[in-house]
Amino acid sequence: MSGLLFIVSAPSGAGKTTLVRHLLTQMASLSLSISTTTRVPRVGEVDGRDYHFTDEASFRARIEAGDFLEWAKVHGNYYGTSRRRIEEAGRKGLDTLLEIDWQGAEQVRKAMPNTSIGIFVLPPSLEALADRLAGRGTDSPEVIQKRLAAAREEMRHAQEFEYVIINDVLETALDNLIAIVHAARLTYARQQQRHGELFTALNAASLPF
Amino acid sequence: MSGLLFIVSAPSGAGKTTLVRHLLTQMASLSLSISTTTRVPRVGEVDGRDYHFTDEASFRARIEAGDFLEWAKVHGNYYGTSRRRIEEAGRKGLDTLLEIDWQGAEQVRKAMPNTSIGIFVLPPSLEALADRLAGRGTDSPEVIQKRLAAAREEMRHAQEFEYVIINDVLETALDNLIAIVHAARLTYARQQQRHGELFTALNAASLPF
What we know:
- Two copies of one chain form a homodimer.
- The first copy, chain A, contains nine helices and nine strands.
- The first copy, chain A, has helices at residues 16-26, 56-64, 83-91, 102-111, 126-134, 141-155, 170-184, 188-194, 196-203; strands at residues 5-9, 30-32, 36-37, 52-53, 68-74, 77-82, 95-99, 116-122, 163-166.
- In chain A, the strands form two sheets. In chain A, strands 2-7-1-8-9 form a five-stranded parallel β-sheet, with helices on both faces. A four-stranded mixed β-sheet of chain A has the order 4-3-6-5.
- Chain A is globular.
């Protein structure tokens, strides 16, 4: 039994994190993958809850050891997903949700083509996104420029994802996300895993009638 | 804009018709395809509601003319899906649901590989199905035997379908069916059709920021 990997990507400002948080409260059978990062913790962030914080030397050693299912360097910081934790969740029959960027998504898709499902979250319009990214008040023009460039780059990869959710009204976007997770559990392969006895009987040479 | 085709197949006795009827009352945006058949109408069946009834000569002429998206001969009677009606629904942006057998499903899958989604409905156990098929009371042993053979043959093709629904509790099966339809409307291709302006901006050489 291997779990499904739901990859959720979005440009910064599309509301991905809020959407995912709501999804997780509604679907106890989904486990969120906590990324490992070399980024300095922000105020209020807790090690092991928001991220697994580590230093660059340790991170690079783990890259060499093949410890990461995916990793990327963004804005000078490393981010990665522990392969072991994903495999453990899978063994427990839990599906995992990964909040990662397009670079990570590409690596996971290649490593796990049969169990990964890519979902891209878009804002209702690009103008709304630009306003939101620029409008955080205290940031320097350089920081805003970096953020805009990253959003632009991220959205260029939307077409590599199976599903797209337009996050206009949160409730609707959440309904959409739930339907995608729900449907992904109903494919022939997944149902065969879950209902082994029925499918074994079905494919047996002689049916009981 | 082309509509999606949801193909629902099942062995006789799995509860497909009841399930589909409930789905259609909940999703007004889905239109049921009415099959054309040479079978004699049963008591209570209405032409144009349950089937489009026709004679064998007309049916065969329409096969020759390429009028059918799919057709099959089952128990000596012809059944087919009008290509024109599917295309009309598609032009109106309506998705269509087809209740057809594995032979028809195979033809639709080949004709419309990008817009057809196959859903197979299974009973909770094969024993339950056998009991149900045998237990209709007044049927002759020959009729029962024919029905069992058809169910066996039908189920052998379950693995050709993307999705499988186990129809144990009707409400759960209905939730599953709704999630599959819902998710199928959220693929990149479908969202691009529906939100043309956003996607055009997204893929433009220069974003508005």
